[in-house]
Amino acid sequence: MTTPHPFDQAIALTPAGPHTYTGATSPAYGNMVGPFGGITAATAMQAVMLHPQRLGEPLSLTVNYAAALADGAFTLMARPVRTNRSTQHWLLEITQPDAQGEPATVLTASAVTAVRRETWSVDDEPMPAVPPPDRVAQTNIAPQVAWPQRYGMRFITGSIPERWDGQGDTS
Questions:
Q1: Each residue's pLDDT expressed in tens, for the chain with a length of 171 residues
Q2: Which of 79, 66, 71, 47 is CA-nearest to residue 106?
Q3: DSSP 3-state of 171
Q4: How far apart are CA 66 and CA 24, in angstroms?
Q5: Could you tell me if 141 and 149 are in contact, meaning their C-beta atoms sit under 8 angstroms apart?
Q6: Which residues have C-beta within 8 Å of that of residue 147, sequence separation ≥ 6?
């Protein structure tokens, strides 16, 4: 059995009733004052992805950070508020106990999922010719905060082309 990736561990949720999940923050995505906001948003979307009533795939997520999420356990509510033929609208809320032990809202969010239909599409610009990732040096990131350590960053540089015709030797 393989060990789950730190991202998968960080967004892990446990069903705790109708529309309700429990989870806990992960030190792997710690920031200076609590978890990195991106991992918190991903955790909220994970509740939608796990929900048995989900229709389609995510299209959008709007997150409101009402207060800092403290390190530790939290409760996440994910409820579909409107389902149509192709789209579904979601209301999300993360709560943690306040100083008196009462649930206090730390995050609210709305999400939209949809069934994707076959349609016409075209890419505007081709991907520039670049070396494969294993041939580009990985950038070392200072370890002051944990979450950037979860990414392998490799930078490719070049000038801005004078003509936007898909030609050129750099992006």
A1: 789 999 999 999 999 999 999 999 999 998 888 888 999 999 999 999 999 999 999 999 999 999 989 999 999 999 999 999 999 999 999 999 998 999 999 999 999 999 988 877 766 666 777 888 899 988 887 777 788 778 888 888 765 556 666 555 544
A2: 66
A3: coil
A4: 18
A5: yes
A6: 28, 29, 30, 31, 35, 36, 38, 39
